[in-house]
Design goal:
By secondary structure, the chain is an alpha/beta fold. It is about 50% helix and about 5% strand. It has three domains: about 60-180 and about 235-275 and about 370-455, Rossmann fold (3-Layer(aba) Sandwich), CATH 3.40.50; about 290-360, Alpha Horseshoe (Serine Threonine Protein Phosphatase 5, Tetratricopeptide repeat), CATH 1.25.40; about 460-535. Strand 1 (about 60-65) and strand 2 (about 65-70) form a beta hairpin.
């Protein structure tokens, strides 16, 4: 008989360990079930922790007889709702894109989907019209794809796609989330949907368990992502990265076309525009092969040109800027300075070319590149999908075809009037392709009255809140770095600044800027009167007296 001790069987040991783990987890499982039964922790986080990358987070949730925006998607998505059962004569459209579609720096109440809904309802009173805003703040095109897969099951009659500005932003600011492994994504998504985690997050933010299911302030400030180490500082000239991002953009858009085609849902593309006159490039870098001697010569030419421009010697400044351009044709700020000189010299056609060059050479491209515009024209031609060229629409209404703060509040977000123009362009396209019968003509007077009534329904602080959000956006986008570049330097610059102040209800600042514009160039008085008429057509009034 052996004296060696008998070993304990391995399986019972494993079983005991597993049982201990399960017993340890049991209280959490019971608490999770209890929270769900009691409705605690439903929206404690206030927003999607993973900024829309959580695959288990729906866009809309059923509440009684309506679908409403999932609270965990806010404030990235605007609060929207639509009937769970579409009426027999219902018309339902969904609009997708980034913060432009969302309506920033205002809310969705003055974004183009709302104005489109107002017009479609007025021209088709026999129909119950719903235009649902699915614009996601900072959302790039690939994040629209899973949203669209959900939305096509809600009986849409039309899908509107207006995307493209956020492609390069997303690739930097959300890189770590995009590169998660499948296992990590599963764990993150599971945690994000947990009521215990949700309540805990609320407590950390200073809320009690009882308060944790209350919807927080949707206007809370966002992280200034471009100031992070992985944000603004990470942008460098990188042709390979540019090509990869554009390839992903095109793939996402083609996937959207395929999803709509499979479900037989009409699709309309909107080619968005951007501010080129009053928005300098965000970041500039020299070409990689610059030598020390090249940099010295470039700096001498650039500094000399800057001094000449400040002195008002524009022709001489232009010559020196061109010397700097010859040394480094990729330096976006020089191209923008050249454009500004040409603009002030009334050489609008040449100026427009250089403004666009400066936009496309921007190392931190937060405005759509011309390659993206060209792709939308290509995909629309290939698929026969209607393309609403909002960019061209607004350019046609801008002096010399160069839009600035007359139609944009910042680098990409249109004015309220700009949103109305985009809605009008979409409505005109829908008339042309016969999506709706448009049985009733909408006169200019009826349009003004409808828009004025909608403005009356907004909060008295609505415009001021827009200004507050814009300040956050400008901090977020590092506009303070370019404050000196974007200060008005001519009559038109002051005129546009005045228009911008008017959009935020800042009457005193608007009056001062408009007076300066007219003092520098009396011809600006005529343009001011034209703008007054535009505001009236938009359902607003300009009550400023400049005398």
């Amino acid at each position: 008989m052996s004296d060696e001790p008998k070993s304990t069987p391995r399986k019972p040991r494993v079983a005991f360990k597993l049982l201990a783990v399960l017993l340890g987890l049991a209280p959490f499982v019971v608490l999770e079930i209890a929270f769900r039964m009691l409705g605690v922790g439903e929206t404690a986080g206030g927003s999607d922790t993973f900024a829309g990358f959580g695959s288990n987070i729906p866009v809309f949730e059923r509440e009684d007889d309506r679908f409403v925006t999932s609270k965990t998607r806010m404030p990235f998505l605007p609060e929207q709702s639509f009937a769970a059962n579409k009426p027999p004569k219902g018309f339902r459209a969904f609009c997708f894109g980034g913060s432009t579609v969302h309506g920033r720096p205002y809310e969705s109440d003055t974004a183009f989907p709302k104005w489109l809904e107002i017009e479609l309802a007025a021209t088709n009173p026999e129909h119950s019209v719903e235009v649902v805003n699915c614009g996601g703040i900072s959302y790039a095109s690939y994040r629209i794809v899973p949203m669209l897969r959900e939305i096509v099951d809600y009986q849409p009659d039309l899908i509107v796609i207006a995307t493209g500005h956020n492609e390069f932003l997303e690739d930097r600011t959300y890189h770590s989330l995009k590169e998660r492994s499948a296992a990590r994504s599963w764990i993150d998504n599971l945690a994000a949907s947990s009521r215990i985690v949700s309540v805990g997050r609320g407590i950390v933010r200073g809320k009690s368990v009882a308060e944790a299911h209350v919807n927080p302030d949707r206007d809370a400030d966002f992280d200034t992502r471009l100031d992070l180490e992985t944000g603004y500082a990470s942008y460098h000239r990188d042709a390979e990265w540019h090509a990869r991002v554009l390839e992903q953009f095109e793939e996402a858009v083609r996937t959207m076309v395929q999803i709509c085609a499979e479900k037989g849902v009409p699709l309309v593309f909107v080619n968005l525009g951007s501010n080129v006159r009053d928005c300098a490039p965000y970041k500039t870098e020299h070409r990689a092969e610059m030598t020390a001697n090249d940099e010295r010569r470039w700096r001498d030419a650039f500094n000399w040109a800057t001094s000449l421009e400040k002195a008002g010697e524009l022709d001489e400044a232009l010559k020196r800027y061109r010397e700097a351009e010859a040394i480094d044709p990729q330096y976006a700020l020089v191209q923008w300075r050249i454009a500004r000189c040409l603009d002030r010299l009334k050489r609008g056609k040449e100026a427009a070319k250089y403004y666009l060059l400066a936009k496309d050479e921007d190392v931190c491209p937060l405005r759509m590149l011309d390659q993206q515009y060209a792709f939308f024209q290509k995909i629309a031609s290939e698929t026969k999908a209607p393309l609403v060229d909002a960019r061209a629409w607004l350019e046609a209404q801008s002096p010399d075809g160069i839009p600035g703060n007359d139609w944009y509040l910042d680098h990409v977000h249109p004015t309220i009037g700009g949103h109305q123009e985009i809605a009008a362009a979409i409505a005109e396209t829908l008339r042309e392709i016969g999506i709706l019968p448009f049985k009733h003509e909408w006169t200019g007077q009826a349009r003004r009255e409808a828009f004025a009534a909608h403005f009356e329904s907004l909060s008295p602080v609505y415009l001021g809140n827009g200004r507050r959000r814009l300040e956050w956006l400008e901090t977020w986008a590092n506009r303070t770095r370019l404050a000196n570049e974007t200060e008005p330097v001519d009559a038109r610059g002051h005129l546009h600044a005045g228009f911008r102040y008017l959009d935020f209800g800042e009457q005193g600042k608007a009056r001062d800027a408009l007076r300066r514009a007219i003092k520098l160039d009396p011809a600006m008085a005529d343009e001011l009167e034209a703008h007054r008429a535009r505001l009236k057509a938009q359902g607003r009034e300009m009550s400023i007296d400049l005398n």
